[in-house]
Amino acid sequence: MNNENIKDMEEEIAKNSTFINFLSKYVEDSNYVYWLYMTVYYPLIVTFLLPCVFVLLIYFSSMTLYIFKFHRWVLMKEIRADDVNFWKVANKFIAAVWDAHATIYHGYEIHGLEHLPRNGPALLIYYHGAIPIDMYYFVAKIYLKLDRLTYTVGDRFLFKLPGWKIIAQALKVSPGTVKSCTETLNRGNLLAISPGGVYEAQFGNNYYELLWQNRLGFAKVAIESKAPIIPMFTENLREGFRNIGIARKFFITLYNWTRIPVRPIYGGFPVKFRTHLGPPIYYEEGITPKELQEKTAMAIEKLIVENQRIPGSIVGGLLDRFFNQKQIDVVLNKTRQRRFINNKDT
């Protein structure tokens, strides 16, 4: 490489990166500095920017729903704002957008769909990833495939975000109480709840441990409504989006104080997503909320150890896009399953 090319590289480094320019003062090899700049600096920025695509897609959905709401007189004549058909048209369009993203970007699939009732109520209990993007994909595909809208319970902080209110209104997302969730199921709807919620989203990792903090609300809902529970887990969910691994104790303290998810997220990797639905857990007379919680946790744990590499691997998740056979450490997963059953530690 001639001196002019080296000079051009150094000028570009100085222009675009203060950090790399600082490093070049201590590393004499200009070729190495330039390689570091191209292979570390840019990928690092992209890794933290990709989650923004998910946020933009949410706001695109919100904008589309506002267009349908405020300009319905152009799009659909003589349909009232509270008419079910109005929201159905808007929801179908939004579902098509999310399903297209799911298929193209993550090769999204649902396994065990035969366990989901075509009619009548069911309570879906799922593992919460760093971003619940699998739930958006699942709701979209089920709505398009079965023409059933899945009601979901969302954390209260979501309803303080601008643009979220209309999404919640159209897609039936609510903070949810035991009473309101029971009523939703009694009307024959599908309802999805993540017992781990935001805490599991923020502080879970690629070992896919359940962080339910002894929450029993969903079990009380299932007992009062007598609706079957469908365990749900999405493979490679933590490989698509992850939380940064540093300062975990600090972020736990901050979350307990604010109840707002403040731990940074990175990722957006196009890994293979497969949602697995387990056999229904039917109502049993005399079962307690604690017993039902443990039974449900073990069912989800079974889905995890049968379908997920532990620990999860981003590279492995990417290879799953091309190969059906994935290597799972059977001994490790069976040991974890036995430990989980013996301890019943949820």
UniProtKB/TrEMBL annotation:
InterPro entries: Plipid/glycerol_acylTrfase. The keyword Transmembrane helix applies. Keywords: Membrane, Transmembrane, Transmembrane helix. The keyword Transmembrane helix applies. GO terms for molecular function: acyltransferase activity. GO terms for cellular component: membrane. The chain crosses the membrane at residues 40-68. It comes from the Eukaryota. Residues 109-232 form the Phospholipid/glycerol acyltransferase domain. This is CLUMA_CG001844, isoform A. The lineage of its organism: Eukaryota, Metazoa, Ecdysozoa, Arthropoda, Hexapoda.
